[in-house]
């Protein structure tokens, strides 16, 4: 499939799944998983950072439309998009990212995906909840929310890829 | 000049990052203060239509519960009907009733989208300005208080739910007629409870007592149930109780609500506005 079409479709699906399904499930303990960081992580490796940030901004803003958060999702999405290349170079495979298309489980393997996406979500969720609460008094609750939500997000991200992604599609 | 261009080129990526962050964060913080941009909320056309479609599917899951609730309400209203009463004396004269005048009008609406895990939570209703809903109207369900209308578009309305930090709805405890303000403090993580503040600690309070709205704000009819007292704590260094109230309705499952229109609110507000400075001081 043409990568532009593929990522546009993914954009729509991820926004709708986040807004209409995951955002509507009543989780206990203040858990609020957010799955769209996976979409931002899966944008092609070779894509320019400015493009990634703009797409992330629109992705976050679309979710803000639905959830009445007025820009909070957009802000967190842009932050992780900005940090994406740093994270990639930190976990770079021996021969760099030559020949890889995107960072999904099948192309990069579990041992790359779990730490990279784990850090990606932790940063995203932590920033999101800190800006939302903005108080030192509730810092413990923010940590609790972050860790529990990130665990669920990671789990969902793995499930989604196992169920819907094609195996062994290397360039 | 050339240096400036070189500078911008070098920091181009960071600049884009900064601009996008400023856009997003100003929008977020100005919204938390006051709804200035109509652009970012779910009373907006596309989002609201999609949420409506989602509600069309999910509403069937809780139909049974809704039916039981409606039946209970009908039963209560039936009990108040005239034919259930026997006239004790036949020699009364009928007069046209001018003692009572309608103050509150109710507009039924359905919740199409809601949040309860954020620090400030909002609902979207499927009715808007075209059904007579306006900013700052109260929203109730048959057995509880839901929130206050925050912004309206033509066919949708966004409601600030009671699970919002400074919601400050005046309420009172029935048994002792002691009034205070309902708040959802950041510390109450539970979407089933709310805090009643401002009750002096010399007033005896017991668990299980009923909390109702009072008419101070003019947003809600008097004596509409809010919930029951669930926990009582002392606040250190303050002569007040911290009372946790269990809400009468579970906001996570609520579907049909009523928007309260106070017909006399304009009159009350315009009268009070003459003395508003004295009220504050």
TrEMBL record, chain A:
Transmembrane regions: 12-29, 35-58, 112-134, 146-165
Keywords: Membrane, Transmembrane, Transmembrane helix
Name of this protein: Rod shape-determining protein MreD
Automatic annotation (TrEMBL), chain B:
Magnesium is among the record's keywords: no
Segment forming the signal sequence: none
Keywords attached to this entry: Cell shape, Membrane, Transmembrane, Transmembrane helix
Domain of life where this protein originates: Bacteria
Gene3D superfamilies: Rod shape-determining protein MreC, domain 1, Rod shape-determining protein MreC, domain 2
A single GO cellular-component term on record: plasma membrane
Biological process per Gene Ontology, one example term: regulation of cell shape
InterPro entries the UniProt entry points to: Cell/Rod_1, Cell/Rod_MreC_2, MreC, MreC_beta-barrel_core
Residues that span the membrane, as ranges: 12-31
Domain named Rod shape-determining protein MreC beta-barrel core: residues: 111-261
Protein family according to the UniProt entry: Belongs to the MreC family.
PANTHER family, per the entry: CELL SHAPE-DETERMINING PROTEIN MREC
Protein name: Cell shape-determining protein MreC
Organism for this UniProt entry: Lishizhenia tianjinensis
């Amino acid at each position: 499939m043409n990568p532009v079409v593929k990522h546009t479709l993914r954009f729509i699906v991820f926004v709708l799944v986040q807004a209409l399904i995951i955002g509507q499930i009543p989780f206990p303990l203040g858990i609020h998983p957010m799955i769209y960081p996976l979409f931002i992580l899966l944008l092609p490796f070779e894509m320019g950072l400015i493009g990634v940030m703009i797409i992330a901004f629109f992705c976050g803003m679309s979710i803000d439309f639905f959830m009445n958060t007025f820009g909070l999702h957009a802000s967190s999405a842009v932050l992780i998009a900005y940090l994406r290349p740093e994270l990639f170079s930190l976990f770079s495979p021996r021969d760099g990212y030559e020949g890889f298309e995107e960072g999904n489980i099948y192309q990069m393997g579990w041992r790359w995906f779990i730490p990279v996406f784990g850090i990606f979500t932790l940063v995203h969720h932590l920033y999101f909840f800190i800006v939302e609460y903005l108080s030192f008094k509730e810092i413990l609750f923010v940590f609790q929310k972050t860790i529990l939500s990130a665990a669920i997000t990671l789990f969902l991200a793995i499930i989604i890829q196992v169920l819907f992604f094609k195996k062994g599609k290397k360039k | 000049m050339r240096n400036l261009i070189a500078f911008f080129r070098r920091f181009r990526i960071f600049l884009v990052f900064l601009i996008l962050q400023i856009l997003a964060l100003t929008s977020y913080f100005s919204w938390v203060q006051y709804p200035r941009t109509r652009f970012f909320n779910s009373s907006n056309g596309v989002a609201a239509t999609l949420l409506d479609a989602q509600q069309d599917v999910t509403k069937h899951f809780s139909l049974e519960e809704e039916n039981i609730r409606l039946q209970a309400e009908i039963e209560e209203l039936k009990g108040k009907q005239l034919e259930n009463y026997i006239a004790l004396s036949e020699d009364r004269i009928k007069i046209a009733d001018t003692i009572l005048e309608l103050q509150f009008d109710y507009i039924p609406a359905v919740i199409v989208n809601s949040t309860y895990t954020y620090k400030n939570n909002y609902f979207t209703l499927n009715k808007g300005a075209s059904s007579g809903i306006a900013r700052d109207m109260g929203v109730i369900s048959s057995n509880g208080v839901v929130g206050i209308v925050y912004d309206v578009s033509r066919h949708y309305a966004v409601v600030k739910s009671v699970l919002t930090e400074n919601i400050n709805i005046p309420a009172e405890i029935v048994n002792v007629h002691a009034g205070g303000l309902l708040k959802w403090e950041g510390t109450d993580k539970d979407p089933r409870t709310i805090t009643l503040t401002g009750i002096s600690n010399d007033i005896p309070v017991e668990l299980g007592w009923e909390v109702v709205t009072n008419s101070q704000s003019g947003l809600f009819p008097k004596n509409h149930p809010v919930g029951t007292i669930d926990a009582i704590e002392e606040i250190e260094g303050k002569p007040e109780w911290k009372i946790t109230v269990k809400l009468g309705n579970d906001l996570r499952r609520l579907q049909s609500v009523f928007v309260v229109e106070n017909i006399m609110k304009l009159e009350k507000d315009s009268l009070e506005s003459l003395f508003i400075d004295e009220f504050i001081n």
